[in-house]
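Attaching the record inline, Q. Sequence:
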Amino acid sequence: MLILCIRTDKPLSEIGLFENSDKIAYETWEAHRQLAETIHLQIAKILQNHSKEIHEVEGIICFKGPGSFTGLRIGLTVADVLAMSLEIPLVGSSGETWLEQGLQRLANGENEMIALPEYGAEAHITKQRK
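Structure, as predicted:
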C-alpha cells in the first residue's frame, strides 16, 4: 500500500511516502506563510522524484495537532480532499508517534473519512466591532 503522510502544524512542513511501513521518502520544507501555495507542489515533487502518480496513493496519514490554526487547517483540508477524491482511507494522529500510529491504523483497515484538527486550545474569537 502506497501511503502519503502530511504534517503542517508548524513553519517547517513535512511530506512522506511509505510502502506499507517502509519509508520511501520524507521531505521537509520551510512553508511558513506559503503553505497553501507550496503543499501541492511538494506532493507532486515527492511523487515525481520516486516515479509515482497521485492515483497510486492508497492511503493518507495526517498530523491532527495541536499546532498552528492555519497550518493544520490547510494540511488537513488537502488530506481530506485527496482522500475523498481518490476514494482512499485517511487517518489522522497526534503526538510524537503520530506517524507510527497512522501506519498501524491504516494497516488495521481504519478510515476516518474526514480528519478534524485538534488545535490544543479553545478558539479566541473577538466580538464584532460596531
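Strands lie at 2-7, 12-19, 22-30, 59-65, 90-94. The first helix runs from residue 35 to 49.

More tomorrow.
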